[in-house]
Write a structure and sequence with these properties.
The complex is a heterodimer. Chain A is of the alpha+beta class. Chain A is built from 16 helices and 23 strands. The chains are: A alpha+beta, B mainly alpha.
Chain lengths: ~725, ~180
């Protein structure tokens, strides 16, 4: 028997007593019964009043009833924002000492590397100078460095104060010492990146807008109370109690109001969304930048009025709504139709429209039904004109120049050598001259004609979902994909055998080949494969209670999650600064708004269960575990990556160590308007230099931030 | 900002003028919420303390609508309701009490509904029909309950406070439990 079953007879008895006592006031029992009953109601009323105030002041009607945000590209982070978020979130207490040490180590590694590079001294000497605070020309910076790395004057009783301020100053010192400060103005003018953030280092999320997602599959729905009238009974009883206390019958009468609306809120349930939805798109294969109008016709096919229908079309990730809105609210009588129209700007990808989110409410708005309805599918495929911007072999590093000489013998025409004749050798391969001279049979061997095999690998890890411009929101993955597309066209034109793969958790591999069909296959893969999509890949996280990734803090809330801003989590992932417990992690987000973190050296911060302590080489080996076996042993590799973390550089080294000639093609998507972003730029340059030192060819360029543009590759 | 959807001379096309308030549209429910709050203030004007509380409620409501804060709008409803109770306990009459009480609840109801609409859809979307339906429903409940309360108050013999309390208590309990 539940609480309701217990309360029901109480209510019936009270109602009966009330009627009797109202009609026959002479039956009122003794004063002690009256006083006790009134005091009881008074107590209940006061508690109810408290519930009213607390509930109404804190209630935001939940998040489940809210329409999901849509029509905007995921809010990718700029490299460096992750460290900024981690630094902003870390506390001064002993409990955060480990995280502070990780941040400290990252800065120290960067400072030492910069010093080694600039002055050509040994690493140990550089480390000593950094630790001693004797590595810049700025006394203040040296003092901050010493305080940060040695803790001088900043740690008292296990509490470290001023950590974030020192981190920012040391980051600036590293940038200055690296020589990058001169070509990177604090307001980011050099690269045209987002200048909205302050240059003070007071980190703020790049995308402060609130985003809500709806975790319901097509055809699923959920009925729930909105909590809108929560506590109204308590308000009624409280007022009644006050009326009794002051002996004012009129005040008691006001309790009727609360009771009336409490009952009103419980009369109906939200109606089922009996909607028939038709969809049309104005263009199914637009070019990048072209506008596509999407029209939805929503008809009430049920028999009852839908007094409050809120609709939000599921706009595929990557598409930005530039005109109109995919969100609509209306009331629909049976058989009536509402039409919604909006326009999106096409970008690379195969975008499928196949569902929409619906929230229906009853007329009192006390209950709501949240659903995701399947609709007519419409696919918009936007394939960039990769061939118009092809990059030929000659434009690349020399290691990819033309055909290669090989020691293999085969069916070519160039003479290679002689060997003894074996039974079964074709008669035509006999060397009659050798037979005449020596009297022995010999078989001629020819060179095996072999074309260059090139494997194009695109960094599609979560760590590659970073952008240089938080307004345009073009992730590095898109730049790398477009760059790979340009290479496909150029390499195939030059006669190479070209393959394609994705380095990341979403497997993608197209074996090497050539020809028209293969070209279409490669370009189609670059256009439509989910590995190169606009959403970061889902992470594999360990929910062990210790991880601070947002995904590890999910709750049982199955429907919607609200995300206001992203901040880096301790482990290089991202946590939501203002998300409810379980707020969807964007960085690692189940298809959410896609904010990603640049990771600390040594941590991938990406897929897999990588943590801070994961060695980048181990991460790289894991990433190449499957892909590496598919690569032809003689394939040259072009690895397109923003080099946002050490794992990307480790992948290039691993490929080189496995005998491949490697070219790293790296678009620069770093920003320059905060100390952290500038530091991320320096770290990227250090990785590039390290690769060059290790004999890996590197090609870098600054890509356009407009996602409708090509990769901007300039050899 | 005003934006016009012109008819261009076409038949059957109605010119619609949108009043956009900052980044948000001024909706029917905004106006209804303020009107309900003002009705409450008018009802409680007979008592000075109640009037002060009522004016505070109106200001809170306006602030809540501007700041888009549901909590502030709810607090405004509580303030308006408290003003009504204060007046009802003092110089207020029966009709003024009912108008004040229902006005307070309706102000909070319309205000929070408007904020919910603002949150869910863009300013360009016309939502008058949805808002009107919701307002009609709430007003109907208010009128019916007010009528019942009025009749109850007029018909009940004086001195039967305990009976009224018992009835309200029963109603509150039954409203809570008679719903799965």
């Amino acid at each position: 028997m539940n609480r309701r079953h217990l309360l029901l007879p109480v209510g019936i008895l009270a109602a009966g007593a009330g009627v009797v006592l109202t009609l026959q006031p002479g039956l009122v029992p003794g004063p002690w019964v009256t006083t006790g009953f009134v005091l009881g109601v008074w107590v209940v009323g006061l508690v109810g009043a408290g519930v009213v105030v607390v509930a109404r002041l804190t209630d935001d009607e939940g998040v489940t009833g809210r329409l999901p945000t849509t029509g905007e590209r995921p809010a990718y982070l700029v490299p460096g924002d992750g460290l900024a978020g981690r630094t902003a979130a870390v506390g001064a207490s002993e409990s955060d000492a480990a995280e502070r040490d990780r941040i400290r180590d990252r800065l120290r590694d960067a400072a030492v590397a910069v010093l080694v590079r600039r002055e050509g001294i040994a690493e140990t000497d550089a480390a000593d100078r950094v630790d001693a605070g004797d590595w810049t020309d700025d006394a203040d910076a040296d003092a901050d460095t010493a305080a940060l790395f040695s803790g001088t004057g900043s740690r008292h009783d296990h509490v470290e104060t001023g950590f974030a301020r020192r981190v920012e100053r040391v980051a600036d010192a590293i940038v200055e010492r690296s020589g990058s400060g001169s070509d990177r103005s604090p307001d980011g003018e050099h690269d045209g990146t987002d200048r909205s953030s302050s240059g003070t280092g007071d980190w703020s999320p790049p995308a402060a807008e609130e985003s809500v997602t709806l975790d319901l599959g097509p055809g699923e729905e959920l009925l729930e109370r909105s909590g809108r009238w929560r506590g109204v009974q308590g308000l009624a009883l409280a007022v009644t109690a006050v009326g009794i206390l002051v002996g004012a019958p009129l005040a008691i009468l006001t309790g009727v109001v609360g009771i009336a609306f409490a009952a009103y809120a419980r009369v109906w349930d939200a109606p089922a969304p009996t909607l028939a939805v038709e969809r049309a798109v104005s263009e199914s294969d637009p070019r990048p930048g072209e506008r596509v109008e999407v029209t939805l016709s929503v008809r009430n096919r049920g028999d009852s009025l839908l007094p409050d229908v809120r609709i939000c079309d599921d706009v595929p990730a990557g598409l930005r709504v530039v005109e109109g809105t995919p969100r609509h609210t209306t009331a629909l009588r049976p058989g009536k139709t509402a039409t919604i129209s909006y326009t999106v700007e096409a970008v690379r990808g195969e975008h499928e429209f196949d569902s929409l989110a619906v929230v229906t409410r009853d007329i009192s708005a006390a209950s709501r039904r949240v659903a995701r309805l399947p609709t007519d599918a419409a696919t918009v495929t936007c394939r960039p004109p990769f061939g118009e911007h092809s990059v030929s072999l000659g434009d690349l590093a020399t290691l990819l120049s033309g055909r290669t000489e090989v020691s293999e013998t085969g069916s070519g025409v160039a003479f290679h050598s002689l060997r003894e004749h074996r039974r079964g050798d074709p008669l035509g391969s006999l060397d009659w001259g050798h037979l005449a001279k020596t009297g022995e049979f010999a078989t001629r061997r020819y060179d095996e004609p072999r074309t260059v095999r090139v494997a194009l690998l695109v960094d599609a890890r979560t760590a590659a979902y970073v952008t240089a411009d938080t307004r345009q929101r073009r992730p590095a993955v898109d730049v790398c994909t477009c760059a790979a597309g340009a290479l496909v066209a150029g390499l195939l034109d030059d006669g190479a055998l070209v393959g394609l793969g994705a380095v990341g958790p979403r497997p993608c591999w197209v074996p090497t080949g050539n020809g028209r069909d293969h070209r279409e296959r490669l370009l189609g893969t670059l256009t439509a494969h989910e590995a190169f999509g606009w959403e970061p890949p889902d992470p594999v996280t360990v929910d062990d209670g210790s991880s601070s990734t947002a995904s590890s803090r999910r709750t049982a809330d199955p429907t919607a999650r609200v995300v206001r801003s992203a901040a880096a989590s301790e482990d290089g992932g991202v946590t939501m600064a203002d998300a409810p417990a379980g707020g969807r992690p964007v960085a690692v987000s189940d298809g959410g708004s896609g904010i990603v973190e640049d990771s600390a050296p040594g941590s991938d911060g990406a897929e897999s269960s990588a943590t801070h302590d994961d060695d980048p080489t181990d991460v790289a080996k894991a990433l190449l575990d499957d892909l590496g076996t598919r690569l032809p042993s003689d394939a040259q590799v072009v690895f397109c990556t923003p080099l946002g973390d050490d794992a990307a550089a480790a992948v290039a080294r691993q490929l080189s160590a496995r005998g491949h000639d490697v070219l790293v093609a790296s678009p620069d998507v770093t920003g320059g308007d905060t100390p952290y972003r500038r530091l991320a730029g320096v770290e990227r340059r250090l990785r590039l230099d390290g690769l060059r030192r290790d004999g890996v060819a590197v090609h870098e360029w600054t890509p356009p931030t407009d996602p409708t543009a090509d990769a901007g590759w300039s050899a | 900002m005003d934006a016009a959807d012109g008819s261009d001379g076409r038949r059957g096309v109605v010119r619609v003028t949108l009043t956009v308030w900052g980044e948000h549209r001024l909706r029917l429910s905004h106006g209804l919420a303020v009107a309900a709050a003002l009705a409450t203030v008018a009802a409680v004007r007979v008592g000075q303390v109640g009037l002060v509380a009522g004016v505070c409620g109106v200001l809170l409501l306006a602030a809540g609508l501007v700041w888009r804060s549901r909590g502030t709008v709810a607090l405004a409803g509580v303030a308006l309701f408290a003003a009504t109770v204060l007046v009802a306990a003092g110089p207020g009459g029966l009709v003024a009490t009912l108008v004040g009480a229902f006005g307070a609840v309706l102000a909070a109801d319309f205000g929070t509904f408007a904020l919910g609409i603002d949150r869910d859809v863009d300013p360009s979307v016309a939502t008058t029909r949805v808002e009107a339906l919701h307002a009609v429903g709430s007003l109907t409940v208010a009128l019916l309950a007010g009528g019942i309360g009025y009749a109850l108050f007029r018909s009940v013999p004086r001195g039967s406070t305990l009976g009224v309390v018992a009835l309200l208590f029963a109603a509150a309990v039954l409203a809570a439990v008679l719903r799965p």
